[in-house]
Write a sequence for this structure.
């Protein structure tokens, strides 16, 4: 690590209509380091990287890249100058091959018009060798899993000779083993002098892979430290701006009678012969790798995807669930994985979103009783502590944590008592996570039961009463709270011992 | 960042945009209106104004239905053919098949609704884009019209039937009353009923709506059925007004109808807009056609102008969205 900063921000400020997203931020990123950027949602991390990469234009201040002031007007220009960013949503073209995607925008050509396939394939293969990963460069990108797509993105950045690589939550959708590979790649890049800006909500990772860390809060620069010199508690305190007493505020509860029983549930090619039961007042965690069928299981129970075989019993009686509406009428609620895609209508207001499942209940002959709806919604906003200027605010303008609370509020209002949570805290900052956990506890107190699918092992371990582990569409084990350890879960989830690898 | 004062000003900003959204199209309409008035003195003549709004009503009732479908993120190209087919059926009952006023009104409306139902049913259950389904239907029912009519228009309606398209209630043409009635009812439905709010929810995010327990397919089919029904109503008005079931009736209506909806600020992406915008959009299209006619501009030019207006309107919508996400 040399002493010359590769990137330096000087009083960087960005003002959106009505919002000061960055407020005079000053700090430097050294050449060749892995620099973590942390902060709660809305702290200004995304805004900062979007300005660096030319998606947004700064309002005031300066950015120095390799000592020279820069002001990129588009991501393309930033890339040409050596700054690349990899977001959670990949920028790849599914129908084209790996090699084509890597060299998209700067295809090699012969005689000006014809694609030089040989050279493109050869260089792509070389990049794969350099990154030490086994990906066939002739494969179509749509046939790759998330982790490999990410590698393609990295290769694409390298093909542009990127000297700074910004990674936004790169591990959010990766399985443990894939995270290992990513970290190995990051180390390779670092040894080649590539500077990496690493954004993650998973603080454990920062200690594993990063050299220095910068904390942003409310658009302001709070601190830049050596990772060695700062404890996780300090980090959290700096991010949140106050003490967080407990990261996982679990209260013990006593499980009551059985409320949901699934017997032999099968969806050919996806789920096989799954049986389990859920009791009143408990949290049943479901762990497993991405793609092990966890999300599909929740969707099948909820009536989104049809099941081929198997029975579902609600409170002892067989339930025929053909659609989400049937599920809701049986008191089942689904909190889907990707809020913005599956959980919310971003264009509509807080009021409209909270009203989605309850409109028929607050209307007379199809006409909505406005007063009743507003009263319920107002009640939810208070009850859930949703921070919004008004009921009429479009949910697209709320923070991630508050959006999640709106999704949850919908079902509170509908009085559902079996909650299927799919990655309840993905992409949510530390403070809001704790709030979500508190809300889950409140649900249990009200006599509800929870099935929670999560990729974050600390979360599954801390919050669940029992844990089911899934692999390849099957339940491969059930662990009690006492038996459950990170290692035990991973061993079951991976199946083969030699593949087992623990992180940190 | 989230200083309360600044959130307030963000809200003011948004409100301004919503305000501009509505008033912008109204302003455009007034400018065009006054411009044509200044260019051709006949334009402001009450008879001409009546003529314009009567003409607009025929397109307008369909546009009301189309607003629902486009709000859902759908599209329907078959409306013009439904107008022709229901018109020829109405004319058939008037002239050839017994002359019952009741049947010549009810059967076409049911057929219109039925075709709309098929559009919705096939596109949702078959998971096909409504664009291609309704494109097929457009051809099917144009052909069916020619078949039923045996290639000849059917003329000579009863005076009672003629009231639908040519009658007056006081100084106001009856079709205008039908049109405004549709607009007002649709406005209330969209704003105040479960059906209306769910239309916005589905158009805004179909998956989220489904997972919230909304029977998405049912609402889509209902919206297409409603549009088919209103296209049938338009067929009745047109046939009555022309005193004839014409073979080429309704040809090219899909452009005028979609243009009215889009100019009125309803987004082709679904989830945003409303029927009052459609009212102004339809009036704008009607006034442009009429004004160009009066100026003696070749009809060919009208098509060109309308096409330009549509593309312009969609561009505006696009800009608005980009502005918002920035």
């Amino acid at each position: 690590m040399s002493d010359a900063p590769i990137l330096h921000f000087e009083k960087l400020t960005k003002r959106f209509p009505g919002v000061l997203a960055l407020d005079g931020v000053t700090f430097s990123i050294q050449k060749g380091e892995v620099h973590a950027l942390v902060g709660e949602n809305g702290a200004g991390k995304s805004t900062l990287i979007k300005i660096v990469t030319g998606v947004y234009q700064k309002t005031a201040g300066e950015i120095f890249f390799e000592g020279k002031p820069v002001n990129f007007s588009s991501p393309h220009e930033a890339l040409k100058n050596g700054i690349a960013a990899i977001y959670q949503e990949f920028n790849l073209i599914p129908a084209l091959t790996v090699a084509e995607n890597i060299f998209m925008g700067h295809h090699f050509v012969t005689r000006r018009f014809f694609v030089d396939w040989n050279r493109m394939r050869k260089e792509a293969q070389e990049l794969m060798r350099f990154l030490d990963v086994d990906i066939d460069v002739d494969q179509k990108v749509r046939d790759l899993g998330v982790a490999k797509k990410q590698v393609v993105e990295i290769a694409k950045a390298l093909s542009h000779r990127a000297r700074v690589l910004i990674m936004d939550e790169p591990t959010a959708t990766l399985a443990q083993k894939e995270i290992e590979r990513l970290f190995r790649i990051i180390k390779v890049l670092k040894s080649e002098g590539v500077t990496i800006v690493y954004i993650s909500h998973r603080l454990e990772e920062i200690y594993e892979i990063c050299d220095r860390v910068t904390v942003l809060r409310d658009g302001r620069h709070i601190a830049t430290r050596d990772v060695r010199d700062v404890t996780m508690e300090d980090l959290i305190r700096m991010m949140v701006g106050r003490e967080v007493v407990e990261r996982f505020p679990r209260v013990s509860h006593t499980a009551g009678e059985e409320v949901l029983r699934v017997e032999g549930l099968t969806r050919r090619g996806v789920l096989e012969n799954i049986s389990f039961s859920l009791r009143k007042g408990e949290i049943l965690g479901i762990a497993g790798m991405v793609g092990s069928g966890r999300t599909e299981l929740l969707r099948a129970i909820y009536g989104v995807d049809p099941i081929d075989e198997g029975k579902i019993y609600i409170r002892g009686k067989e339930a025929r669930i053909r659609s989400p509406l049937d599920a809701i009428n049986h008191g089942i609620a689904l909190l889907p994985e990707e809020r913005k895609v599956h959980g919310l209508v971003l264009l509509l207001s807080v009021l409209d979103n909270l009203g989605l499942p309850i409109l028929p209940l607050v209307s007379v002959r199809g006409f909505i009783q406005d007063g009743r709806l507003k009263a319920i919604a107002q009640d939810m906003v208070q009850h859930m502590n949703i921070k919004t200027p008004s009921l009429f605010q479009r949910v697209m303008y709320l923070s991630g944590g508050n959006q999640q609370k709106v999704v949850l509020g919908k079902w509170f209002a509908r009085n559902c008592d079996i909650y299927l949570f799919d990655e309840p805290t993905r992409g949510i900052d530390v403070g809001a996570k704790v709030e979500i956990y508190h809300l889950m506890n409140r649900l249990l107190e009200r006599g509800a039961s929870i099935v929670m699918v999560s990729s974050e092992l600390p979360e599954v371990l801390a919050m669940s009463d029992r844990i089911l582990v899934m692999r390849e569409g099957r339940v491969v084990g059930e662990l009690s709270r006492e038996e459950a350890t990170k290692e035990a879960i991973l061993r079951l989830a991976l199946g083969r011992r030699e593949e087992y690898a623990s992180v940190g | 960042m989230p200083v309360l004062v600044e959130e307030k000003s963000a809200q003011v900003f948004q409100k301004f945009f919503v305000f501009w959204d509505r008033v912008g199209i109204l302003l455009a309409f007034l400018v065009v209106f006054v411009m044509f008035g200044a260019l051709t003195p006949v334009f402001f003549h009450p008879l001409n104004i009546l003529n314009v709004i009567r003409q607009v009503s025929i397109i307008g009732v369909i546009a009301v239905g189309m607003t629902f479908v486009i709000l859902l993120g759908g599209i329907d190209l078959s409306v013009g053919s439904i107008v022709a087919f229901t018109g020829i059926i109405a004319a058939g009952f008037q002239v050839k098949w017994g002359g019952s006023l009741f049947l010549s009104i009810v059967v076409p409306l049911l057929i219109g609704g039925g075709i709309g139902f098929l559009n919705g049913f096939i596109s949702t259950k078959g998971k096909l884009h409504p664009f291609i389904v309704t494109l097929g239907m457009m051809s099917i029912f144009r052909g069916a019209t020619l078949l039923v009519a045996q290639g000849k228009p059917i003329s000579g309606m009863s005076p009672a039937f003629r009231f639908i398209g040519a009658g007056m209630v006081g100084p106001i043409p009856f079709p205008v009353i039908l049109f405004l009635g549709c607009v007002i009812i649709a406005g209330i439905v969209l704003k105040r009923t479960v059906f209306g709010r769910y239309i916005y929810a589905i158009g805004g995010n179909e998956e989220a709506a489904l997972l919230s327990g909304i029977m998405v397919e049912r609402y889509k089919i209902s919206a297409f059925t409603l549009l088919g029904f209103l296209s049938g109503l338009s067929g009745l008005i047109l046939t009555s007004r022309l005193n004839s079931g014409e073979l080429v009736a309704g040809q090219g209506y899909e452009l005028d109808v979609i243009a009215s909806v889009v100019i009125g600020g309803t987004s082709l992406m679904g989830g945003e807009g409303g029927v009052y915008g459609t009212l102004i959009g339809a009036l704008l299209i009607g006034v442009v056609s009429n004004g160009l006619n009066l100026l003696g501009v070749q009809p060919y030019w009208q098509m060109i102008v309308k096409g330009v207006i549509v593309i312009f309107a969609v561009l505006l919508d696009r800009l608005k969205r980009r502005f918002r996400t920035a």
Notes: Chain A touches chain B through 49 residues (CB under 8 Å). The mean pLDDT of chain A is 87. The CA atoms of residues 117 and 436 of chain A lie 51 Å apart. The first strand of chain A starts at residue 5 and ends at 16.
